Amino acid sequence: MAALRQTAASGVLETCGLERILEALKLLLSPGGSGSSSLQITKHDVLLTTLKSNLSALEDKFLKDPHWKKLKLLRDEIANEGEWRQDCMDVTWRFTSQTLLLLLCLKETMIRLAVEFNPGKPNPRTPEAAPALSPDTLSISQQKTVQSVLQFVVTLGVCPYLVPGVGVPVSYRTEFGAVVQDVVCLGAAPSAPRRLYISCKVLLNVAQHASLGSLIFCRHFGDIAAGLCQLGFCPTKRKPLNPEEEVLTEDERALSRKALRDILDQVYQPLAVRELLILQGGPPQSCTGEKTQVMCRAPAWLRRLCGQLLSERLMRPSGVQAVVRGILEGAGGESVEGVFLVSTPHAFRCKICLLEYSVKKAIQLLCWSSGFSWILDLFHFQDKLTGLQFQRVATTTFITMSRERPHLAAKYLLQPVLAPLHRCLNTAEVSECDMVPGTILVTEEELSRCIEDVYKVYVVGNEPLTVLVDSLLPVLGVLFSLYCFTKHSVSHLRSLCQEILLWMLGKLERKKAITSLKGFAGLDKTVPSLHSLCHFRAATQGGIMITIKEAVCDEDEDEALYQKVSSEQCQVEHLGELLSHCQECGLAGDFFILCLKELTHMAVEDEAELKTKPFSSKSLLELEQHQTLLVEGRERKLLVLQLTAVLCERMSEQIFTNITQVVDFVAATLQRACASLAHQAESTVESQTLSMSMGLVAVMLGGAIQLKSSEFAILKQLLPLLEKVSNTYPDPVIQELAVDLRITISTHGAFSTEAVSVAAQSTLNKKDPERRREEQQQTSHESYSNVSYNHLEQQRSHCTSNQTSLTPNAPLVPQEVREPSITTNQKSGSITTEQLQEALLSAYDPQIPTRAAALRTLSRWIEQREPKALEMQEKLLKIFLENLEHEDTFIYLSAIQGVALLSDVYPEKILPGLLAQYDGGKDKHTPETRMKVGEILMRIVRALGDMVSEYREPLIHTFLRGARDPDSAHRASSLSNLGELCQRLDFMLGSVLHEVTTCLIAVAKTDHEVQVRRAAVHVIVLLLRGLSQKATEVLRDVLKDLYHLLKHVVRLEPDDVAKLHAQLALEELDEIMRNFLFPPQKLEKKIMVLP
């Protein structure tokens, strides 16, 4: 019988196709209807009626249609082998049973078709032919049918039988789910646990096929996992009295537990993590409204189980990545198992809390393991978006580990990250095999990854924990050396190194920060730095690597010494640049004061060195050691001097941020002055510095800032030094000031002498001489404003009668009276006739500053459209044109500006005269005057803008005639003006286009002067640049000729500048043609209104 049944099944499998099974599934899913108007009947009865009618229709097909006979035999065969009852009083379970049977039939059929599939050999002559498709492949419409069937199976066969709190209730998902929850009859046999077990078992059986498994787990993994959790781990209320009362056997529960772990290992791990988090649920929810539905919290056994399973996911290879992906991929609004996860700020905060939980859980589970590479791997994702998300997790892990377990963080996290930098420290032990010159000590990839990881942990994390700061402190010297190397070339590590150094210097204690800066500058040899045998080199991929230096030969000692000195000098320069970013925090000021104190120590050491007796009775070794110390001392002194000079040059006035630094600065200056007096080495510089520092104290005491009692206590630190200066300094003025400052500080400003106020005012005047000069000018202007009007009028009338015979020996109006009144700013409409006459007379003054100021004032009045000035346009034009002949640059440039502004107001009156003057020969005007008029015309063309088309004809003809002038400078000027004009004419250039082109071609090819040929090519550049995309229309007829001319210049022109202009023009032309042939794609929507 068994053999006969197997043979029959084989025959059925051979003849039954996928289309018949999918047709049966579609029949089960056929929608129904009802003519009743009651909503309650529609929700419940219609569903039951539809399920019954679909089941009856399927049975009728099996009984009456001969084409369905084979499928019926297969279904009956599988049903007989099944271990559950298909006959039940509950319609929903009967429907689910039939659907499960058809899914099993579909799986068996697909397996049989795949086994029997034997594709023919491909024809090598037709490589374009596609390979034969496997017969078990489902089309897109068939996949949709299967997905709909699976949704019904899960909704009717799994979700209704989950206990409250396990999974997301089906009533919370859709309105249909609420209806299903009401129509399922739980009292009918088989029992609810048995139904759930059968559904999950069959679905897992169907999922063994790869295609069907992907459809099942992609959408319904969470519900199946919830069912298996309940079947395998849900505690029973009591033990059954006999085997008949037992719902599930222990073997079945064990099989459910095993199936749960199998599918968790099988599916995409982020999906498993996400579904376990959903099953685990969150904290209890409170009902805030009457209509708000509150979901039941997951039971305790399920929360513990999900936590254990999540921990197992975390412990797997790449488990942390899977957990993080599972959380982050569900952070947006999306549908998960039919539940819509809303992307809100609250939901995002929940994801962040889950991330923090994952990090803490990972630390608890993995802190005692031997490797932490999984944390470091989170930093190194290539995808930018994913990399940023994982970087946040890795940074949080670093910070959490450093805060909770600093020893483990230093050993397993920070030490591997900083290993490339520790490898090249001067305190590191380099093996002999690595001492070979040229050996790569740190590769390009290692160094780049190290710097990027340090930046992410320290700067991005921004948590100045002790273990983090202490771990990075020893390698700051190497980081600074790397920063200096990146300043000599283009490197992506430069900004990272700078940010890391600034972060560390800002977070370190001030004493440690100063020590580190001394190490950077070379003042403190005890600070770890780059090994003397190591140096940086540019790598092949654009990065940097660290290698062992080549051995220095005797012939290269001078070169090595030069490299050493230049390297130290560059390091000082780069240190000054780095400190320029540290002024606000006060670190730059403290380091500057340290350098000043070093200068004082240098003065003391020089005095002691002079008193040292020669070693007449010492050995040669001791003498050599002494000389070595002297050389090192001199190197240190030179370094301090250079560092002080760089800081004085780079730092701004805001280098001192508090009164303590100011007092320290003054104290250092006083100490240096006292040290200079001790060995009688006073100099002018020392005296000026001392006066400046004491004046600074006088400014503070004079009321520039409001001093508190605590600040006076700080100032009292200067009392001993001031007393010493007052007793020993030879200058009596400084002695008196030191005594007065002591008195003022001791009395907290209650008593202050006049000397203190005078010193404060003197210091302020030195600091801002411009402000003092302006005040003096204002005072003088006010004093001269009292001159009688009659006297001024008398002098003005005398000047008017002798206007044409002014001589330098007879100035008629005092300069002190005229100049301030001319340079005073006037508002529009506020000038008087007297002021205008005064300005006109000053325009003929023999003194150059007075005349230039008058011309500038007249130009400003024209620009402001002063009516009184515009009424005298002819006289103003005459004045400006006469001043064009002046030799002084300031005078004739002011006149050029005035004529250009006047032409902008009255172009129709002034422009023809200027063109005639520009077009005249050498016998009428000098070449210099014609060049100045050309400059005026260029400014007029620029000022007129689009209105220049009104004067196109006279301008173009004048410039074209000027291009044939015998004077080469005039030809170049005409061509330059022609370029400015053509750049603004656009389509108005059409009628004279051929004339302009012929002129440019002739000049560029035949003119003997280089400047003229350059100007001709430059006109083409301006023309193409001004027309831009309109060049293809305006220059359509001559574009080819211009192109040939440019190519001719590039190939045959001997002048490099002309070649450069031609190349620029070709690039402009190339860009224009590219945009013309391949216009940029614009994403735009067009709305058309149909008639």
Describe the structure.
Helix content is 67%, strand content 2%. With 1091 residues, it is mostly helical. Among the domains are: 145 residues; 63 residues; 108 residues, no CATH class; 74 residues, Alpha Horseshoe (Leucine-rich Repeat Variant); 162 residues, Leucine-rich Repeat Variant. The strands form 2 sheets. It has a 3-stranded antiparallel beta sheet. Strands 1-2 form a two-stranded antiparallel ribbon. Strand 4 and strand 5 form a beta hairpin. Helix 2 runs antiparallel to helix 5, helix 18 crosses helix 21 and helix 29 runs antiparallel to helix 30. The relative contact order is 0.02.
Briefly characterize the structure.
The chain is an all-alpha fold and 1091 residues long.
The name of the CATH topology of one domain is Leucine-rich Repeat Variant
CATH level-1 class of one domain? Mainly Alpha
- Continuous helix count: 48
Class by SSE composition: mainly alpha
At the fourth CATH level, what is the homologous superfamily of one domain? Leucine-rich Repeat Variant
DSSP helix fraction: 55-70%
Q: Main β-sheet, in a few words?
A: 3 strands, antiparallel
Name of the CATH architecture of one domain: Alpha Horseshoe
What's the end-to-end separation, in Å? Answer: 79 Å
Strand order in space, largest sheet: 3-5-4
Tell me the strand percentage band. Answer: under 5%
Organism: Physeter macrocephalus (Sperm whale)
Pfam families: ARM_TANGO6 (PF23565), RTP1_C1 (PF10363), RTP1_C2 (PF10304), TANGO6_N (PF25267)
Protein name: Transport and Golgi organization protein 6 homolog isoform X2
Family: Belongs to the Tango6 family.
